[in-house]
Amino acid sequence: MNKILTFNMAAKDEVLSSTVEKQFQRLMSNKERDIKSKECSWIFDGKWIRAGHIHYSLKGETRVWETVERTTRKGTADAVDIIATQKDKDRILLVAVYRPPINKICVEFPSGLIDKNEEPSEAGERELREETGHEGKVENISVPVYCDPWKSTENTILVQMSITDDAGKQSLDDDEYIEAFYLSLQNLLKSLQSLKEKFDIEIESKLYLFALGLENGKTLLK
Amino acid sequence: MNKILTFNMAAKDEVLSSTVEKQFQRLMSNKERDIKSKECSWIFDGKWIRAGHIHYSLKGETRVWETVERTTRKGTADAVDIIATQKDKDRILLVAVYRPPINKICVEFPSGLIDKNEEPSEAGERELREETGHEGKVENISVPVYCDPWKSTENTILVQMSITDDAGKQSLDDDEYIEAFYLSLQNLLKSLQSLKEKFDIEIESKLYLFALGLENGKTLLK
Percent of chain B beyond pLDDT 90? Predict the structure, then answer.
């Protein structure tokens, strides 16, 4: 089930220019960078996150960087974000979630932490069921991508699913406030903008960028 | 210059179903949610970030949530992320940045903090110049979107730019390690995957989701 999103790229189908290849070969072996081992000292050590300082060396100088980490990672990634669609009905399943840090409802992909000994695909199926009450079939799974690498190690895996069952019931923890709804896939960016204009909600960045990519695809791609 | 990304949506061109409209009207006025004022107590109080507890009330119960914030926001958003393209040359300008929290090179959009009294469009032009040495023309600006609303208030504004000048020189701080490069816009997702397969780099989530949206646009959209 752990198929990486390769989109049928043929083995010899090269997409990187020789300029970029050489640039990255140099970049990865660059002695000027001269990065030394990383040590962390935590000042805030919570149940879900911890924050403090990284001590490291770059270009020969010792430096300090402020950082935050999730404390709960069990495997290669913290979480899954689920892109769950019904293409024949032109719709994507999203959630509206109350988020204490911004004290507002935020519109997002269904998502959740990957449990111990759980495959990302299993986490995707489980979280979709828990947050939306729907069953889905996993179609593709991404590499782990990093949500805010300037400040944290937090990462997530994108699980693309097709929704197979509209019945069911949410199963939420007492401190969760989540509601599922559909938007048009064809008009995803416009729909998100319309929600933002009419209601006092915020939009999560990964979802917005997916919508922006879809919209740009209409005009940018041949 | 602060045009919001509306993509020529006609004033009466409704994209939200009446079901979603009603769902959000109910959601925004829901008494069950019963959210009370938010207070924060900081335990780690750094120069760039602070972390600690939010004390709030949901569904009538007092609760505590762990949170982190940027300390540097001057206006409505912390930062800009720049989608800088040359469409006639089928390419997008990206950066490879050393990120201490993950102790690796991460591939990202050019980005940076919005300065005091600076418009997002100005921040986009300045950061593109500083990080890549290129000049660009701002074409569209998004609403602020939230990067990790489960844990922080951090937000960013997407600035779409067309690159107008290939000359120029980077202007970086001493603790920055950033290199600019072009990838194909048509094959953005494949190119990112190829970079990840060949080199020990990571990919930032907003960039990955934009690429995934573009790729999905090829097959999902009519």
Answer: 72
In chain A, residues with a C-beta closer than 8 Å to the C-beta of B181 are: 19-20, 23-24
Pick the CATH number of A79-220 from 3.40.190.10, 3.90.226.10, 3.90.79.10, 3.40.50.800: 3.90.79.10
Listed in sequence order, the residues at least 6 apart from A74 whose beta carbon sits closer than 8 Å to its beta carbon are A114, A115, A116, A117, A118
User: What is the C-alpha to C-alpha distance for residues B92 and A8, in angstroms, rounded to an integer?
Assistant: 22
Judged on CB neighbours under 10 Å (0-12, 13-18, 19+), A144 is buried
A100 closest CA partner among B131, B77, B197, B36? B36
Do the Cβ atoms of B85 and A16 come within 8 Å?
A: no
Q: How far is A195 from chain B (nearest CA, A)?
A: 8
CB B98 within 8 A of CB A58: yes
Residues of chain B with Cβ-Cβ distance to A208 below 8 Å are: 142, 145, 158
Q: Do A217 and B213 touch (CB under 8 A)?
A: yes
CA distance A56 to A72: 24
Residues of chain A with CATH 3.90.79.10: 79-220
- CB-CB under 8 Å, A214 with B216: yes
Residue B4 tokens read as 């919001």
Write the pLDDT tens digit of every residue in B118-155. Answer: 999 999 999 999 999 999 999 999 999 999 999 999 99
Residue B8 has pLDDT above 50, yes or no: no
**Do residues B1 and B119 touch, judged by C-beta distance below 8 A?**
yes
Q: Which CATH class is domain B79-214?
A: alpha beta
- A93 to chain B: closest CA residue: B20
Interface test with B, best of A152, A175, A198 (most B CBs within 10 A): A152
- With CA atoms as reference, the chain B residue closest to A88 would be B220
Burial bucket for residue A31 (CB in 10 Å: 0-12, 13-18, 19+): exposed
Nearest chain A Cα to B15, which residue? A191
Continuous segment of H or E residues that includes residue B68: strand B61-70
Contacts of B44 in chain A (CB under 8 A): 43-44, 51-52
Are the Cβ atoms of A146 and B204 closer than 8 angstroms?
yes
Query: Is pLDDT at A37 greater than 70 in this prediction?
Result: no
Helices (H) and strands (E) counted in chain B, each on its own, are 4, 11
A148–B148 C-beta distance less than 8 A:
yes
